[in-house]
Automatic annotation (TrEMBL):
Organism: Corchorus olitorius
Keywords for the protein's UniProt record, in alphabetical order: DNA-binding, Nucleus
Domain HTH myb-type: 555-613
Name this protein carries in UniProt: Uncharacterized protein
GO cellular component: nucleus
Database matches in SUPFAM superfamilies: Homeodomain-like (SSF46689), Ubiquitin-like (SSF54236)
Region annotation Disordered: where it falls in the sequence: 286-315, 461-482
UniProt keyword annotation of Nucleus present: yes
Location (main, coarse): nucleus
Amino acid sequence: MVSETRLDYGFSGYQVPVFPRASRSARVRVPSRKKCGNNQKHAFEILASVAGELLQESRYFVPPDCKEDQHGTPEITVVKEQEDERQLLNCSHSDQETYDDKTSLQHQIHASNKFSNVQDQFNLKSSSTLKNLDLSKNVCLADQSAKVDDETASSSATVGISSPESGEFFEGQVEDARAEFSIIQSVDTATLPVTGGLEMLETDHKSPAFFCSESKLDASLFKDWITLGPSRHSNTIETVSRDDDENFIGCTQAGTTLKAFRLPSDLADQRVNNLSASRHWRVSPNLNGGTSFKNDGRRRSSFHSGRTNYTRQRSQRISPFKKRKFFNQCPFTAPDRVFQFEDKFSSADKRSNGDKCNAAVEVASSVASPHLPPGSRDRNVKLRIKSFKVPELFVEIPTTATVGSLKRTVMEAVTTVLGDGLHVGILLQGKKVRDDSKTLFQTGISQDHKHHHLGFTLEPKHTQTKPSQCSGEQGLTRRGTPLTLDPGASSAFLVPPATDCASGAESDLQVVSSLSNISADVANPQPLVSIPAISVEALAVVPFHHRPVHREFVQRRIRRPFSVSEVEALVQAVEKLGTGRWRDVKLRAFDNAKHRTYVDLKDKWKTLVHTARISPQQRRGEPVPQELLDRVLAAHAYWSQQQARQHNKSAV
DNA sequence: ATTAGGG
DNA sequence: CCCTAAT
């Protein structure tokens, strides 16, 4: 059959398409995708200069107990923690920084008896049940992996609990749907992006020698939160799998800051109040006016922009100076959130919690005391924005996605959230400070009032949401609807608790699920209950104003190079059916290859033709037998000719 | 849903 | 592989 067909080929050679389509440029096209660059930059500006703009002078605060890290940057705290992390967790991967996020991510975190410490540091939590089992000192192992083979991509996650004392080890595998669930969870849970908290450190009456005039923002600090389903009842462990920050903005090779998005145990506290405009960004009139979020949030555009920024950042080390630049470039900012600005000395409790809190953003500001002559720097208020929060992000990603893509996806989500342009609002003791002309002193932001909670809000420029400190109405709305689960229970994602901000009480992380069926999950005795991929319907349970956003972040399909045998099949089918009947080709030769669409086949044929025409030296990937390539050229020429004839015929 | 092409 | 326009 094949030879027969080949004999019919009149000539070998390539013909340009018989029915050339108007080139794209020839067609009138309306740009449907826009890059959200400027707004993001603005947002970053805000982030970077919250203190600077509001307090006139940003300072980089170096905690007294800080030592300089190996890079000479004052990020001691972070570095120190990182070391602690490695030491305490005794990570099985000595160089976690070099994960290949394309193939797999395997985290094995072993904690010794120091686990309790680690637990605190990483906000690892075990449910009460686990504690009852004396697991508080136990090892928590989280192994999440995503593997891809030729045929199918699958991901799995393993969660285990082991007891150093008893030597027992329990682990559960999560695969397929479960894996998907867990992954989704991790993503959703990872909704921690920008966390923020401002801390009023103290009043400095001396020259701010310890300050550098830059604020820093390390968005790189990102951690995936993986909340795996309980093995039974409420046996749940929340594990934090450390990310190789490589893919994240602000990530510095030195891994200076891993604290970034870790959810501090007092996260809830920090999350307080950030509900107000939380959903507005989604419906915000991004670029095309209201409905454009989709376009704006298009995976591609956002991805590219994100990657670009990321690339740039990577090369930018921690020099404060560069950081400023970083801010300007990075579309990574805080959304309309309120972040706490608290007096560092106001509460011992809080302080301790605050210590664990990772500062995605640390800004130390030195502010001239208002009651002193302008220009006088005698009295300054040091402020440190510990972190910003981006409470809610919804991401949907197939289990076949790579870890790397997951990271990118989350990054994109974050980027999109932050890309709309924000402005800063200030809350003092729950009241919004609207008069920009007032001095800090007049407003009450000074050492004399350091016991007053100061809050900053990042709000969409268009949405004049006035986030009362407690994010009143909206917070209530949100609070009422979603299911609130035991913090230790499995959950799909975290939703910033609408805890009352007035009290500023330390509330535990509130795990709220928008999935109604999650409740069933809790009660289900199964170690891990698989939950169908988050569907629009399911998410609809959440009081979203509009369609869930996660749709916008579509995962790029995993690359699956054609094998020689596949090429063979393709060639044979095309020889028989010709080009232009890709559906038939698909049915004929790839009917059982679910991942090969007719578009894929068409594309592959295109590349095959191209490959056949270039020199073997220029070819890449698995070499295709020349014999096949010859057939490709022959078939292509033949069918092109056929098309030409057909065309002429109809034209006449 | 398919096809054709540009990216 | 993705994205779209055009069927």
